[in-house]
Amino acid sequence: MHLGFPLTVLFTIVVNSANGQACESQDCIVNEWSDWSDCSSTCGDSGTKARQRLILQQASCGGTCQLNTTQRAECNRKCCPQDCVYGQWTAWKFLYFSFNCSEGGERYVFHRGRTIERESACGGMSCSGDLKEIKCGQLKCYRECVLGMWSFWGSCQGPCEQKGVRKRTKIIKQEPSCGADPCPPLEEEEECIAGCCPVDCQLGQWSVWSECNITCGTSNRTRTRFVQPAECDGTPCSEDPVSEDREECERYENVDCVVEPWSAWGDCSLTNGVCGEGVRNRSRGVVVEAECQGSPCPELEEVGVCLGPCCRQDCQLSEWQPWTYCSTSCGTGIRYMID
Hints:
The protein is 0% helix and 33% strand.
C-alpha cells in the first residue's frame, strides 16, 4: 500500500490473546523530519535549532513507538563580532599659543583625548580612530562678553491694581573683543500686577464722652471716632490715628436703698411643737443697693410672736404658807394661812 510519503514501519507476527487469532504487530508510523528552524542566536555558545515530525499512526498489536518527535542541534557556535568601544572625549584644554593656525595673529591651541575601553574582536570594527585631537581656538586677544548677575526686579510700573511692567538689568564685567559675539540684552522685563492704590488717612469727629461708669468715686469715660489709616503710600495721619480716647472722671451720686414689700408671714413655729406661743418669719429683698452716702438698707428679715391652739392646764395649788399672827391678843381672834 502506498501512502504518498516515506514511512518507517516495523512488522512482527503476534497472537491475539482475546480470540486466539494471529495479528500482525505494527509499530507507530511517523512522517519525515521537517526542515530545521532558524538558529536561536547568530553567534556565541548558546545557539540551537530544532526540527519535528508527526505520528501518523499509533502502534498496534504489541508494536512500539520509541521514536523522538523533536530533534535539537547546536548551531552558529562561533565567536560574536565585537566593535571597538571608545571612552568619552575629555573636555578641551588649553595647550599653547601658536601663530601657525591661520592668518590674523596668535591663537589659542586646545587638545583633548579619549581611551579605548574595549578592543575589537571576531571581525568587529577595529579601533582605528584617533585617541587625541588638537584644534585652534580664538585669537589670543579674544575676549567673550562677561555679564554680572541679574539685579533684583524693580517695582511694578503701571496703574494701581492693574497689569504693569517691571524690569531687571545686568552689568557688563568684560567687553567682547577680537571677533567675540556681542553682549546679549542687558535689560529684561515681565508683566506684573501693580501695587494697591494709595489710600489717604481719614479721621472722623470724636463722639460725645460716655457717662462715667461709676456712681460713687473715680473711674474712666471714653469717646470714639472713625479712623481710616493711610495705605499704599497714601497721605499719613496728622496725629496719632487712635479710634478710642479715654480719660479719668469722677461721679458722686447718693442712692438710697430701696427694698421690696414684706413677704407674707411664714408658718407659726410653736415652742413646744403643739400649742401655745411660737415664732414666725417674714422677709423682703433689695431692689436698689445703697450707693455713695445714700440711706442704707433696713432689716431684711423680721421675727414675730404667734399663738397656737390654747394649751389645756389643770388648777395647781402651792403649799400652805405659815399662819399669820392672831388678830387679837386676848379673847377670840382670827389668823390665816394662805397658799
